Amino acid sequence: MPPKLDPAEVVRTALRLLNETGLEGLTLRRIATELKVQAPALYWHFGSKQALLDAMATQLFQEMSAEPWPAPEAGWREWVAGSCRNQRRVLLRYRDGAKVFSGTQLQGSEHAATLERVFAALVAAGFPLDEAVQAYATGAAYTVGFVIEEQCVHPLPGEVDARYDPAARAERIGGAYPLAARAGEGLFTGFDERFERGIAVLVAGLAATVPGIA
User: Fold this and answer.
1) What percent of the chain has pLDDT over 70?
2) How many Å apart are CA 52 and CA 49, to the nearest integer?
3) What is the mean pLDDT of the chain?
4) How many other C-beta atoms lie within 10 A of the C-beta of residue 98?
5) What residues contact residue 98 under an 8 Å CB cut-off, 6+ apart?
6) Is the confidence at residue 128, as pLDDT, over 60?
7) Over the stretch 72-84, which tens digit does the pLDDT of each residue have?
8) 3-state secondary structure the chain
9) Is residue 148 a contact partner of residue 87, using CB atoms and an 8 Å limit?
């Protein structure tokens, strides 16, 4: 018989350990040790580490769904921006959160309720469904990619990886490439402002390329 383990507790433990170990150090053996069981016990519920990552990503999406969302009558710009902000906010709670979320398959069907809300808001604003899907997918891809890079510099809020110090980078590059040397400030600082600027670019691009939306 399978050991009496609550899969939800395994996922919560994995997310908690993620902040200590990072994705590379998160192993089924480490999780089993934390839960005081043998590693094979986890395989009754998660046949591979990827299956566990899928479950962890599903939990992250549930947390995103629980974040504040725009009112139903809000404009499509607020829904696009709100979706991106909610994703980033949750991913930043966990070390390597964006890497965990990237490339995973969400489990079950609960996430469909949130997608339905987003697509309904965009369709009501004049988006054809395929354009609404593209808008959401583009925002999600932008957010996940942005946070992956952000978490290289700030693995957790308040932490800074010294390897990305702009001054040290500029000195290493030297004077032969002055523009590239000076770009460090724009690449590795000011993430909040840069993220919002990216959302503005996304929204402006949608307004310019999707017919029939205001």
Assistant:
1) 99
2) 5
3) 94
4) 24
5) 91, 144, 145, 147, 148, 150, 151
6) yes
7) 889 999 999 999 9
8) CCCCCCHHHHHHHHHHHHHHHHHHHCCHHHHHHHHCCCHHHHCCCCCCHHHHHHHHHHHHHHHHHCCCCCCCCCCHHHHHHHHHHHHHHHHCCCCCHHHHHCCCCCCCCCHHHHHHHHHHHHHHCCCCHHHHHHHHHHHHHHHHHHHHHHHHHCCCCCCCCHHHCHHHHHHHHCCCCHHHHHCHHHHHCCHHHHHHHHHHHHHHHHHHHCCCCC
9) no
Using a cut of 0.85, tell me whether the model's pTM lies above it: yes
Provide the token pair at 54. 């899928």
Contact 153, 188 (CB under 8 A): yes
